[in-house]
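user: Kindly work through both lines:
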Amino acid sequence: MENPKFKFEELTVYQESLDFVDDVYSITQKFPKDKSYGLTSQYKRASVSIPLNIAEGAGDTDAQFNRYLQMRGILQKNVSFAQQLQKGKDS
């Protein structure tokens, strides 16, 4: 039996948000252990909320879904922040 495919799964913003979650998890593994329960946990929860909100919004009206998709700007800012964090760790 084939898994159902939802419309939001085809959206670039959704796919990028999943990549972002992977990036956050990879980067936060390199954080000092004393940050693992505070900052690391917060970054992980925030990153996971992005694709969850996109999926949740996909079932609403077009106007409501567009509001969810406006998070793309937030995603771009967070990706930039994650890249800066990675550069700092590599230095």
